[in-house]
Design brief:
The protein is built from 1 helix and 5 strands. The strands form 2 sheets. Strands 2-1-5 form a 3-stranded antiparallel β-sheet, covered by helices on one side. Strands 3-4 form a two-stranded antiparallel sheet. The longest helix has 14 residues. It has one domain. Helix content is about 20%, strand content about 35%. The chain is of the alpha+beta class and about 70 residues long. The chain is elongated and about 50 Å long.
Length: about 70
């Protein structure tokens, strides 16, 4: 699933694919914001970690989990 994170005061976004479910990503972001944590950590499908300060989060867009199609589509 694709995750897109907007960071305040920057013109770029952080985009990556993760193997976590949409609910797990939403819960980790909500828990960090509710607890007043200074940062939230994301892990992509390749195992790389991204640490983002919660004060700098502009938005978090969670893509849908879609199955890949095989073959030709008419």
């Amino acid at each position: 699933m694709e995750i897109r994170i907007g960071i305040a005061n920057t013109g770029r976004e952080l985009n990556f694919d993760t193997s976590e479910s949409a609910d797990a990503v939403k819960k980790s972001v909500a828990a960090a914001l509710d607890a007043g944590a200074t940062h939230v950590t994301f892990t992509d499908a390749k195992g790389s970690s991204y640490i983002v300060p919660t004060a700098a989060l502009a938005f978090v867009e969670v893509g849908t989990e879609e199955t890949r199609r095989v073959g030709f589509v008419a």
